[in-house]
Amino acid sequence: MTTPNRSSRRKVSVVGAGSVGTAIAYACLIRGSADALALYDTNSAKVRAEVLDLNHGTQFTPPCTVEGGDDISVTAGSDLVVVTAGAKQHPGQSRLELAAVNVKIAQTLTEQLLAVSPDAVLLFVTNPVDVATYAAIQAAGPSYRSRIFGSGTVLDTARLRFLLATELGVAVENVHAFIVGEHGDSEIPLWSSATIGGVPATSFVGPSGGVLGPDLRANVAKSVVESAYEIIEGKGATNLAIGLSSAFIAEVVLRDEQRVLPVSTLQTGVHGLDRVCLSLPTMVGRAGAGRVLEVPLSEKEASGLRSSARTLREVQESLGL
User: Fold this and answer.
1) 250 inside domain
2) What is the per-residue pLDDT for 6?
3) N or C: which end of the chain has fewer CB within 10 A?
4) 103 occurs within a structural domain
């Protein structure tokens, strides 16, 4: 197995060796997202076991070195750090209820990670991701606004597109629609800009005559919000899809793709929003999260987005952020 020149190697570190962190590391490994992977967790036995397990499969993956440990220095020199560390979400518990504990973890980790990888982009997956991302930016300072962002509603958007493709009988690649706002209960689908094969989604007729009427839209939106709760109830955690989506985001950053993704960023005026991290379609590349696109919104969507922002600000203020 050849090893890339160290000066050109792309290193991704994953913080947290739980079900989400290991799923992200595994997805990055099998997709060839990076040349080097590092896994950090304070549980030394767990992180060692996960690193061994991943290394034993490297014969069957694109070339990649895998290391790990219980010292933050294992992440040094990272191009991208994916942060999953935090308290686990339990059945019936909302993401926002996790806020107090996970915000403190986010703030501490941000300072530690940037100390050993000062040029890294930090991608937060820890829930509640919007509040954790806001806390991390506060800890790092405003100059890091673009280089620290959250996975936001990238996975929620994938769920929406999957459900629409299934209901209407089309390939998921032909569905273009976004979930925006909070990664959680107040998120909203942007029906007014959704398209299928270039046709407005609300006007599209599927191969079997299916249409995206009001009832179906309501059911799909409800299913997107409830998906995580259903998965957590059944198996204890959502991990596989967030693993794949996080690996995808990592590739977008490392390859400087300038792809539009609904990631969670600190808002500074688009749609009148500020002082809050939430998801809107955003240009993502090597420097992190860039320009937020001001996509047209219906009055109902604009109202829903403002409400989602208020929900998040209330949590931030309750935590002194």
Assistant:
1) yes
2) 45
3) N
4) yes
Q: Which residues of the chain have pLDDT under 70?
A: 1-8, 89, 93-96
Token digits for 122? Answer: 């930090």
pLDDT (tens digit per residue) in 15-28: 999 999 999 999 99
157 is in an annotated binding site: yes
278: phi then psi, degrees, rounded to nearest 5: -155, 175
Q: What is the pLDDT of residue 3?
A: 44
Q: Is 56 a catalytic residue?
A: no
CB 168 within 8 Å of CB 196: yes
* SS3 state of residue 262: coil
60 and 178 belong to one structural domain: no
pLDDT tens column, 258-281: 999 999 999 999 999 999 999 999
Global pTM reads 0.93
Containing structural domain, residue 216:
154-318
Q: 137-140: which pairs have CB atoms within 8 A and are 24 or more residues apart? A: 137/266, 137/277, 138/107, 138/321, 139/106, 139/107, 139/108, 139/110, 139/111, 140/110, 140/111, 140/114
Q: Edge to edge, what strands does the sheet with 36-40 contain?
A: 65-69, 36-40, 11-15, 80-83, 121-124, 148-150, 264-268, 274-279
Instruction: Determine whether the annotation assigns residue 264 to a binding site.
Output: no
Which helix (H) or strand (E) segment holds residue 313: the answer is helix 299-318
Does 236 appear as a known binding residue?
Answer: no
Per the annotation, does 295 bind a ligand? no
Q: Judge contact between 140 and 148, C-beta under 8 A.
A: yes
CA–CA distances in Å: residue 249 to residues 31, 174, 189, 312: 12, 20, 20, 23
CB 130 within 8 A of CB 278: yes
One domain, residues 132 and 180: no
